[in-house]
Amino acid sequence: MSYEKVNQAKKTIIGTKQTVKAIHGGHVIEILVARDAEDRITQTAINAAKEKGVKINFVESKIELGKACGLQVSAAVVAISV
Predict the structure, then answer these.
(1) pTM to 2 decimals?
(2) Which string of b and e fits 14-25 if b means at least 16 CB within 10 Å?
């Protein structure tokens, strides 16, 4: 399950803007995108990942993705960094 990947990752980057910056910086190996997040929020990260050849995984819930990151709030996009 993708939520477990977040728990096991040594370094994660949370949020669309930070994820896009990290993708362009070459620091990301995979991103997780919540299916229930709005496209206008997630699309820039998805496009950047496709452009740079970064693996994209989709998860069902932004609330669960946030919890997997140890947050009290939801997360639409999370990057797993090297």
Answers:
(1) 0.91
(2) bebeebbebbee
